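Lab notes, practical 5.
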Amino acid sequence: MLFISDIHGVLPALDRALDLGERLGYQQIIVLGDVLNHGPRNPVLPGYAPTEVADRLNQFADRIVAVRGNCDSEVDQMLCHFPLMAEYNWLVMDGRRLCLTHGHRLNPDNLPPLRAGDGIAYGHTHVPVAGWQDGILHFNPGSVTLGKGGHSESLGHFDGERFRVLDLNGQELASTTWKPQ
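Output from the prediction step:
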């Protein structure tokens, strides 16, 4: 699985992420929100092309599970051929649940109901995270467009055993196993 968050309408960043994803051999794309709009707190970056971002992602609509970010709207859904407006979603893997959310509502400070061994995957902060806290997996792939807190642009990858955050050159920034620690 390829985890992408906070694209903010920047086509070259999305293309770099998808190219790296191809090399990693993903089968599904998990989009953790903020797909097309740059938002009022972020600069408009070179390559800002929200319609083209929607077109590119639509090519993979049958492989995408997405959630809504705080910059996503019903107008964005009109361009995207995959469901984008869910506040959160769940993946069930190996009998454990992974909550997919953007992170502006549900997040490490406001967890959904989880039990030991479950996890939360979120974006919003643009800061990579991969680790266990109090028996709960916390996973944030960072942002493919605008790293924050001194972090470079990044994405997430799950190979069935490890959750990894990689910069867009493929260098590992953080990782953990799917086994509770």
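Observations recorded by the TA: The longest helix spans residues 11-24. The chain has one domain: 2-177.
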